[in-house]
Amino acid sequence: MADIDVKVASWKLVEVGRLVLIRSGPYEGKLAAIVEIVDHRRVLVDGPSSEENKIVPRHVLPLAHATLTHFTIPQLPRAAGTGPVKKLWAKNEIDGKWAKSAFAQRTDRSERRKNLSDFERFKVLRLRKQARYEVQKSYAKVRAATKA
């Protein structure tokens, strides 16, 4: 047999301390940490964000309503109360790390695009056309230089 080393994708594990993005329900789009695993379909989550509009109260969440992220809060004890979760959340700078993630930036960009006025959409269209024109112009120069 071949000597193959198989590794489990550990960031996809449902574990205490894993951060989840809530996909549906009253807290849709907010971040929370898994505090306890209730059963194979439900987890207890708590989201003590430092921003007032992003706080998620402690509640049981079906895993079908959550997306696992690659962020974790290390050394979070099982069934920890909101106080210790909040301290570890702040210590690990979860809000800052999440804001820098590609997923959060893409979500913010789509939200901004949804809320544009007609004139602002027109300005975006013009800017995209200008950028495309510059790219095509530089590509044509490179293509002409390779033919010569």
UniProtKB/TrEMBL annotation:
GO terms for biological process: ribosomal large subunit biogenesis; translation. One of its GO terms (cellular component) is cytosolic large ribosomal subunit. It comes from the Eukaryota. InterPro entries: KOW (IPR005824), Rib_uL2_dom2 (IPR014722), Ribosomal_eL14 (IPR039660), Ribosomal_eL14_dom (IPR002784), Translation_prot_SH3-like_sf (IPR008991). Gene3D superfamilies: 2.30.30.30, 6.10.250.2270. It holds the Pfam family Ribosomal_L14e. Residues 13-40 form the KOW domain. GO terms for molecular function: RNA binding; structural constituent of ribosome. Signal peptide: none annotated. It is found in: Cytoplasm. Keywords: Cytoplasm, Ribonucleoprotein, Ribosomal protein. Component of the ribosome, a large ribonucleoprotein complex responsible for the synthesis of proteins in the cell. The small ribosomal subunit (SSU) binds messenger RNAs (mRNAs) and translates the encoded message by selecting cognate aminoacyl-transfer RNA (tRNA) molecules. The large subunit (LSU) contains the ribosomal catalytic site termed the peptidyl transferase center (PTC), which catalyzes the formation of peptide bonds, thereby polymerizing the amino acids delivered by tRNAs into a polypeptide chain. Belongs to the eukaryotic ribosomal protein eL14 family. This is KOW domain-containing protein.
